[in-house]
């Protein structure tokens, strides 16, 4: 049995499209979103609305406390467990999300590396980005060439692997374990102007749904500074507003700008993935896109009615 993987940039419409496809295919959904997995951040993570969650089984949504740490290796392990459980029930599986490292953990595999070390990560997180880059170039020049110079998460992981194993991360390339089920990879994209409009509309909706209040509750929880949730776009800009660094209008402007920047990085990342079937969703409603995806999936899954 194949597993459908729907990927694409933020705000392109993956959530409702995946819900439509899952309902038609009698499938369950696994979220590949690094923030949706946390509790208490329904608005900021743009969690699927309750009417979708009530109709279609979703996994890895709202299950961890805000202070928890979760990484691509745990996601991959959880995915393998969940796919086995779901298919054993006679259901199909749709994985949907835009977290690049989570998607890569499925499409390119993971090497059996060491678990995260909180102490090492705390020390590395305190270093400026340029210092991380210099250190990585010194101990693992091949990884330094591959990792974007502003991608702190991947630089920290590469350094962590080196400090824990004594070997550069690049030495483990080619030892990745492939995903046990064949993936049908569908990418969603749309015209840049429409994507930006969708992002602006989504940010406006999030503010109306209580993003500021949700961020303030998170701010008052005094989470440890290394908690990944604190890096979420939407919260970190509002934290600056709470600190008095700028007004609320500027916070909103920054959220929109940073979300557009993130969408561009996602697209660049996903375009480098092999065997992705790209669908242009410009001007289309969720049902139209869902039917296109079902037609593609049927070519790989003849039993899909």
Characterize the structure shown:
- The longest helix has 24 residues, at 248-271.
- This protein has two domains: 3-109 and 177-300, P-loop containing nucleotide triphosphate hydrolases (Rossmann fold, 3-Layer(aba) Sandwich); 118-172, Histone, subunit A (Orthogonal Bundle), CATH 1.10.20.
- The mean pLDDT is 93.
- The radius of gyration is 19 Å and the shape is globular.
- The protein has helices spanning 14-25, 50-55, 72-88, 100-107, 118-125, 129-139, 141-146, 152-165, 192-208, 211-219, 235-242, 248-271, 286-300; strands spanning 3-7, 27-31, 58-59, 92-97, 183-189, 277-280.
- 51% of the residues lie in helices and 10% in strands.
- It has 13 helices and six strands.
- With 305 residues, it is of the alpha/beta class.
- Strands 3-2-4-1-5-6 form a six-stranded parallel sheet, with helices on both faces.
Describe, in short, the structure shown:
With 305 residues, the protein is α/β, with parallel strands linked by helices. It has helices at 14-25, 50-55, 72-88, 100-107, 118-125, 129-139, 141-146, 152-165, 192-208, 211-219, 235-242, 248-271, 286-300, and strands at 3-7, 27-31, 58-59, 92-97, 183-189, 277-280. It has a 6-stranded parallel beta sheet, sandwiched between helices.
Q: What is the string of helix and strand elements?
A: EHEHEHEHHHHHEHHHHEH
Low-confidence stretches: none
CATH topology type of the largest domain: Rossmann fold
Tell me, what's the shape? globular
Q: How many structural domains does the protein architecture include?
A: 2
Measured between the Cα atoms of the first and last residue, the distance is: 14 Å
Given this structure, which CATH class of the largest domain is correct? Alpha Beta
Strand line-up of the largest beta sheet: 3-2-4-1-5-6
Average pLDDT for all residues: 93
Q: Strand percentage, roughly?
A: 5-15%
Give the count of helical stretches. Answer: 13
- In CATH, the architecture of the largest domain is 3-Layer(aba) Sandwich
Estimated helix fraction = 40-55%
Helix/strand/pairing class, anyone?
alpha/beta
């Amino acid at each position: 049995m194949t597993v459908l993987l729907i990927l694409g940039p933020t705000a392109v419409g993956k959530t409702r499209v995946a819900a439509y496809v899952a309902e038609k295919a009698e499938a369950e959904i696994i979220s590949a979103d690094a923030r949706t997995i946390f509790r208490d951040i329904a608005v900021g993570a743009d969690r699927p609305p309750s009417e979708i969650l009530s109709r279609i089984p979703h996994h890895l949504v709202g299950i961890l406390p805000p202070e928890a740490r979760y990484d691509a290796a745990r996601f991959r392990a959880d995915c393998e467990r969940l796919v086995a459980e779901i298919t054993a029930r006679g259901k199909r599986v749709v994985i949907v999300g835009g977290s690049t490292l989570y998607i890569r953990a499925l499409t390119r595999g993971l090497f059996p590396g060491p678990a995260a070390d909180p102490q090492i990560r705390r020390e590395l997180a305190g270093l400026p980005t340029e210092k991380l880059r210099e250190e990585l170039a010194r101990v693992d020049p091949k990884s330094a060439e591959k990792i974007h110079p502003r991608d702190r998460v991947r630089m920290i992981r590469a350094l962590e692997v080196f400090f824990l194993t004594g070997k550069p991360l690049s030495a483990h390339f080619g030892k990745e374990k492939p995903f046990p089920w064949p993936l049908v990879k569908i990418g969603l994209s749309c015209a840049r102007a429409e994507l930006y409009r969708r992002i602006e509309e989504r940010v406006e909706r999030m503010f109306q749904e209580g993003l500021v209040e949700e961020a303030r509750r998170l701010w008052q929880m005094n989470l440890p500074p290394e908690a990944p949730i604190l890096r979420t776009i939407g919260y970190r800009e509002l934290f600056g507003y709470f600190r008095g660094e700028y007004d609320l209008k500027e916070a909103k402007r920054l959220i929109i700008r940073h979300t557009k920047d993130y969408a561009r990085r996602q697209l660049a990342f996903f375009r480098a993935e092999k065997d992705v079937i790209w669908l242009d969703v410009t001007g289309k409603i969720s049902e139209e896109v869902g039917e296109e995806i079902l037609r593609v999936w049927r070519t790989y899954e003849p039993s899909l009615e």
